[in-house]
Amino acid sequence: MTVIHKQDVVDSVADALQFISYYHPVDFIDAMARAYEQELNPAAKDAIGQILINSKMSAQGHRPICQDTGIVTVFVKVGMQVQWDCDEPLQSIIDEGVRKAYSNPANPLRKSLVADPAGSRKNTRDNAPAVVHMELVSGSDITISIAAKGGGSENKAKMVMLNPSDDIAAWVEKTLPLMGAGWCPPGMLGIGIGGTAEKAAVMAKEALMEPCNIQELQARGAETTDEKLRLDIYQRVNRLGIGAQGLGGLTTVLDVKVKSCATHAASKPVVMIPNCAATRHIEFTLDGSGPASFDPPSLDHWPEISLENSETSQRVFLDQITQEDIASWKAGDTLLLNGKILTGRDAAHKRIQELLEAGEPLPEGVDFRGRFIYYVGPVDAVGDEVVGPAGPTTSTRMDKFTEMMLGQAGLMGMIGKAERGAETVESIRQHQAVYLMAVGGAAYLVAKAIKKSRVVAFADLGMEAIYEFEVSDMPVTVAVDCHGKNIHEIGPAIWKVKIADPQL
């Protein structure tokens, strides 16, 4: 009878979460490097390059790959012959490991979980509880698969109850463009098929724990229905031309994973969950002999990359920016930002809205007139850092506040990731404003461009407070110019046509 010690689980969970916060899986690095070499769209290639450079920087600096250090998902397979040295619930043991990981002073991870989700949405302050799935299996050890899943990709999960004769790959091909770029492609798709609605969702999430190996499957050929479906979806999705960060290009997904199980004769539940460019997961086994250990990958796995677009980027100075300057920027242009910007996310925008509706002034130091806002919730700084990893959050969530920010608050421009809705694009055009896109999945790289940081308002919101950043050569792409030209429409449309050309 194997005795599993509580502290071994706590320490292993904590160490695993720290490990995956700054080390991508090697198979994922290899897949991303392959996508970089094959990409023909310069903007998409530059985005993938930034992701890979950021990944290597995080591995060297032991700092988070992405500022969104995720909600913790854990799959635990417990052997029937296992005995525990305590009677605490498994949930409590794992949550203790989560708290230990996220409060590590050497590498604090951003605490993003809120309780009372339909009400006060108050931060739990420790990123617990984790989402735990437990299964009893044969054997005398326990296997734990653990992931840190970002909100941007999780929010794009899709579920459908298809008719038994419906084509799953066709549903994915139709649905994926509707997800936009907020899930930070290129990444992976997990597809769960069968069972019941909740079973399909669990299978989709578990599928994302598997390694990237679609090239191996292509080489040997599909043998099962699920393998045939993987190849079909992989080809269909990449033919859409969505590309890295939704800019248009050859690679939208690095791999597609499928898990299925028996279902009712009248049912065909399907769930699709994407994993972003900050894919973070690991598996380990405990046999009673002590906590798990994790071997860091060699830095030789990362390719040597120099960003070509940096040589053609236009350097701009935000503290002296004029309307004429913004009018000269075109969708797809690359810029290097210098100067001061304010930050703000969902909670800050809601408070601004409440103040404006009440006719009350904004807090001292918060004046958006003629300025730019960056949608970000940074990780806490350590050592001599100005700020921790500070990549963009999904801009679409701020769409409902955009007209207020441009029309009432006097904002000149916005910086974030992913596409904007049609009404927001029209508002940008009417106000002659601009929307700039930073690369999701390059948070540590972006943080190095931030030279000064201070909280100016709503400090009680933690990472959702309003900061003022002073940036130097922060790389961005003009996603929506002041004429309403939208790179997230233009880019994929162009590359979908190019991919269909047999001469490509």
By CATH, the superfamily of the largest domain comes out as: Fe-S hydro-lyase, tartrate dehydratase beta-type, catalytic domain
Structural class: alpha/beta
Q: Assign a percent range to the helix content.
A: 25-40%
* Beta-strand content: 15-25%
CATH architecture of the largest domain: Alpha-Beta Barrel
Placed side by side, the strands forming the largest sheet appear as: 14-15-16-17-19
Instruction: Tell me about the largest β-sheet.
Output: 5 strands, mixed, barrel
How many DSSP helices? 15
Shape estimate:
globular
The average pLDDT is 95
Which value, in Å, is the CA radius of gyration? Answer: 23 Å
Q: What is the CA–CA distance across the termini?
A: 61 Å
Q: What is the fold named in CATH at topology level of the largest domain? A: fumarase
Number of strands: 19
Question: Can you walk me through this structure?
Answer:
The protein is an alpha/beta fold and 504 residues long. It has three domains: 1-150 and 281-287 and 298-304, no CATH class; 152-277, 60s Ribosomal Protein L30, Chain: A (2-Layer Sandwich), CATH 3.30.1330; 313-491, Alpha-Beta Barrel (fumarase). The protein has helices at 6-22, 26-38, 42-61, 90-102, 151-154, 168-175, 197-207, 214-220, 225-238, 323-327, 346-357, 399-407, 422-430, 443-447, 487-500, and strands spanning 2-4, 71-79, 82-84, 114-115, 122-123, 131-137, 142-149, 158-161, 187-195, 253-263, 269-275, 281-286, 314-317, 334-343, 372-374, 413-416, 434-437, 450-457, 466-480. The strands form five sheets. A five-stranded mixed β-barrel has the order 14-15-16-17-19. A four-stranded mixed β-sheet has the order 6-2-7-12. α1 crosses α4 (90-102), α6 (168-175) runs parallel beside α9 (225-238) and α12 (399-407) packs parallel to α13 (422-430). The model has no long low-confidence stretch (mean pLDDT 95).
